What we know:
- The termini are far apart.
- Helices cover 63% and strands 4% of the residues.
- The chain is elongated and about 95 Å long.
- It has a domain at 376-400.
- Mean pLDDT is 89; it is low at 2-11 and 274-283.
- A hairpin with a 4-residue loop joins strand 2 (346-351) and strand 3.
- By secondary structure, it is mainly alpha-helical.
Amino acid sequence: MSVDFSNPSKLVLDEFINTALAATPPELHPFFESFRTLYSRKLWHQLTQKLFEFFAHSASQPYRVDVFERFVRDFEGKLNQLRLVEMGVKVSRDIDNPQVHLAFLTALLSRIDIEKSKDAHVLLVATIARAKLLYGDLEGTRAEMEKAWSVLDTLDDVESGVNAAYYGLAADFYKAKADYAPYYKNSLLYLACLDQEKDMSPEERLLRAHDLGISALLGDTIYNFGELLMHPILGALDGTPHEWIKKLLFTFNEGSIGKFEALAPLFPHEASLKLSENAGPINLPILQENYAFLRQKICLMALIESVFKRSADNRTMSFQTIGEETRLPIDEVEHLVMKALSLKLIRGSIDQVEQTAHITWVQPRVLSREQIGGLSERLKQWVEKLGKVEERIAPEVLASG
């Protein structure tokens, strides 16, 4: 379908509709008849809704760009700017040529008034950034991301779709750079903007769960998996070849070195998060390559668990005890404790002469059923001790009364 209008503002509606009816399959004709009626009556909101229905129809794919450029542009100033951008974003996916794709989005951005619709501006800039990421321009992607965030960060009330566009982009950007901690953070924020069952296919949920699990394990600042362990996205791993990653996450949360060693033989089978320049996955055994880091991380988690299991008045631990709990040689214990202190996983002090560590605080985290049971037992013991103290002091209190 092609109509050459030298001046879109003087578009002849009937000529456009008649040309469309002659060029498109019969199943699309009711849409164009509705466009005629709604346009003539200037029912812009209803026309917007009908356009979304048209763009969602599978048969409309060959005609979407023409309809947007030759019809929608005539009255785009009368539409809600965010809805207009959403249409433009959907249409742009049908443009295969990278230069034309970016030119289409950039031209639309030039027609969006940022002062009137900042959320529309953010959505479009984030879409441009995603296109640049798709075409391998990481620096260009970063620049556009910064522009989008500089506006998004000033907004108090933003539609979930706009937030999802930005955080999904940020997650994919950090995935391309194999930067695990920011990928983990932005990916969880992205999921918070979606209805997992409605907005994601089973394949997308599985990939997201897999990538989140790998990033949690390899993130050098991530030692609290609580938000992920409670998230329904992990359910996507159940019954798949990657289910053991879920078990590994819980193993780290429990600080169980024995379970870690039992799962270690599966490490060579898990590929990297890192993407190649053409956005394809690089097939590297990423967990196996980072075994030394994972081993140190599970030792730190074992230390946290060991401290957590102890009562508050029994947290001065010898290096010998810590070595036994973490399965480390005694000459490596001090370094492990110092690492835990520097990461703020624990608070306390080290006595090098006595070779002891006095722990005053341990980082909170999500507990398994077994850990909750242990905590319940310690509370029971604490209540019993408190009862004995009351029995001992009660006669003195009564006597003084």
